[in-house]
Write a structure and sequence with these properties.
Blueprint: H1 3-6, E1 9-15, H2 21-30, E2 33-37, H3 39-47, E3 52-54, H4 55-59, H5 74-81, H6 87-95, E4 103-107, H7 111-116, H8 122-127, H9 132-142, E5 148-150, H10 156-168, H11 176-201, E6 204-205, E7 218-219, E8 230-236, E9 246-251, E10 263-266, H12 272-285, E11 292-297, E12 300-306, H13 310-320, H14 322-325, E13 328-332, H15 338-345, E14 349-354, H16 359-364, E15 372-375, E16 389-394, E17 397-402, E18 414-415, H17 423-436, E19 444-447, E20 452-456, H18 462-475, E21 483-487, H19 494-503, E22 505-510, H20 517-527, E23 530-533
Parallel strand pairs: 1-2, 1-4, 2-3, 4-5, 13-14, 14-15, 21-22, 22-23
Antiparallel strand pairs: 6-7, 8-9, 10-15, 11-12, 11-13, 16-17, 18-23, 19-20, 19-21
Length: 541
């Protein structure tokens, strides 16, 4: 009796990551599925008492070239690629004594993990490029109507559930919808894998004279070809405007504490603008160590404050610009309790985000069915949850840059005026500077006592931003006397400084670096205010 006659269904198993594979193989065997496997996987299954046929027995050739060649053979790919509904294909298999393979379970050499390790040599990177695995995956996925292709342990449960259900009805097969979904996932995985290889190799500054088994290549910060992979979270009702279509995508492995990891607890579906504004609010609020609240409208913080608790932080943030806060996006970096929830619920809010919500807080919003509540767990350190790269789409191209993750420390400040900032002013300067980083350029931010007092954003002239910040404060009936000011870029002329000082500022932080720095310093000394240079700007477009 040959192999084809003795088994109704055959599964080929070839995995690097063997998590869950023994249990899967046992479950397959219990259904009467014949097992074929390679090298270490075959040995593992045999040690568990499972009847397994090594690929070398199927192909008639041993594994060779240190395992580089083992499944690249017509008896493997013929068994995967043959169309069962095509007589010519089946006749060819019979003529060449090739058995069909109905289920392929493969995961690939860990290329991404290997090159992520410090000190990875070029030789290690090359050896972790899988050849046979992707070839089999492509063959099985192409022939999805006849072959199930499993590329991740997370798929094992669904596959076994269907096989057991069909076996109970006298069959042992996967449904068309599941096979197709598995094939799509397989091609996605191959795309991700090839993209990672391309990104790595095209970033290598190759020096042939240094080539050896221990050669750790220098790598360019930006690769010669840039490949990104995302998975769709959801389709959106429309884009920035109702005539535009849109969808939301997530990184393959989103960082803990990022917006993509959030769970919506209630409310309408998030819109394109909701998501964009929510990201701006969340990135800003999680940069604070103490309890903070950020209110965003049209991508700009219109109120930011820290406090002893969420209620205090919200109350202060709301005071900055109550008019703009209407219909805004609100983010907290601490769990929202009943007191904060009751205060927020008195206003119209589009999205409310926090690491958690108390049961009482959730009860407050039960009647506000349209308010979108988002729970986003935060790790202990802000530095653990920041994007490394930022992209911007341009006509037929892409701009790529390292993310603006610069954090200003007190020691970084250079006092350039006769007057010295007080300790209280220095604390507020650091607060104001952190806020200015998230305000669209040109940005002018007045602050006092851990609270924004006036925000000027997105103007073509820094002078206009300074004036608008003053107008906003006046509209909110806030006094700018004895405030500090952060400017995201240098003052090109003294007039911007004159405006903020005339409004009441006594201390100013700016990057410095203008050819007219001395003119602005002289103006600060003339006004009798303190000014510090940060040495770094924060343009945000």
């Amino acid at each position: 009796m040959n192999f084809e006659e003795s088994m109704s269904m055959r599964a080929l198993i070839s995995v690097f990551d063997k998590t869950g594979i023994v249990d899967l193989a046992k479950a397959l065997h219990a259904l009467g599925v014949g097992l074929i496997s390679t090298g270490g996987t075959a040995k593992l299954l045999a040690e568990q008492g499972l009847p397994v046929t090594e690929v070398a027995e199927v192909t008639g050739f041993p594994e060779m070239l240190d395992g580089r060649v083992k499944t690249l053979h017509p008896k493997v790919h013929g068994g995967l690629l043959a169309r069962r509904d095509t007589p010519e294909h089946m006749a060819a298999l019979k003529a060449h004594h090739i058995d069909t393979i109905d289920l392929l379970i493969v995961n690939l050499y860990p290329f991404e993990a290997s090159v992520a390790k410090p000190g990875c040599t070029l030789a290690d990177a090359i050896e972790n490029i899988d050849i046979g695995g992707p070839a089999m995956v492509r063959s099985a996925a192409k022939n999805w109507k006849d072959v199930g292709i499993v590329t991740d342990a997370s798929q094992y449960a669904d596959v076994m559930a269907e096989l057991k259900a069909s076996h109970a009805q006298g069959q042992c097969k996967l449904s068309d919808p599941l096979r197709f979904a598995l094939a799509v996932a397989a091609f996605n995985r191959i795309s991700q894998y090839d993209g990672a290889i391309s990104n790595y190799l095209s970033s290598v500054n190759f020096e042939a004279e240094k080539l050896s088994e221990t050669y750790v290549p220098e790598r360019a910060q930006f690769s010669g070809q840039f490949n990104e992979q995302y998975v769709k979270v959801q389709d959106l009702r429309y884009g920035e405007n109702s005539h535009q279509q849109a969808a939301w995508y997530s990184d393959l492995a989103p960082a803990a504490g990022s917006l993509a990891t959030g769970v919506q607890l209630q409310g309408k579906e998030l819109s394109y603008n909701n998501i964009a504004d929510a990201d701006a609010a969340w990135e800003c609020v999680k940069s604070f160590d103490t309890a903070a609240c950020v209110i965003v409208k049209h991508a700009n913080p219109c109120g930011v404050a820290v406090g002893a608790n969420p209620l205090e932080a919200y109350s202060k943030a709301f005071q900055t610009d109550p008019t703009s806060a209407f219909g805004g996006i609100i983010a907290f970096n601490r769990p929202v309790d009943k007191a904060a929830a009751e205060a927020v619920s008195k206003q119209f809010v589009e999205v409310l985000m926090a690491p958690d919500f108390s049961a009482e807080a959730l009860e407050v919003f039960k009647s506000k069915v349209n308010v979108r509540l988002m729970k986003i767990a935060l790790p202990a350190h802000y530095s653990d949850v920041r994007n490394a790269l930022e992209t911007k789409r341009v006509g037929s191209g892409l701009l790529l840059q390292s993310a603006d993750n610069h954090e200003l420390a007190l020691a970084d400040l250079k006092i350039v005026t006769f007057k010295q900032p007080t300790p209280e002013e220095l604390n507020d300067l650091l607060f104001a500077w952190k806020v200015a980083k998230f305000v669209k350029s040109n940005a002018i931010v007045f602050c006092k006592n851990g609270m924004t007092m006036g925000v000027g954003a997105g103007q073509m002239s820094r002078l206009d931003s300074a004036r608008i910040a003053s107008i906003k404060a006046e509209a909110a009936q806030l006094s700018l006397q004895n405030t500090v000011v952060a400017s995201d870029a240098f003052f090109p002329f003294r007039d911007g400084l004159d405006v903020v000082v005339d409004a009441g500022a006594t201390c100013v932080a700016q990057p410095g670096g203008s050819m007219r720095d001395q003119e602005v310093i002289d103006a600060a000394n003339e006004h009798g205010v303190a000014m510090v240079f940060t040495g770094v700007r924060h343009f945000r477009h």
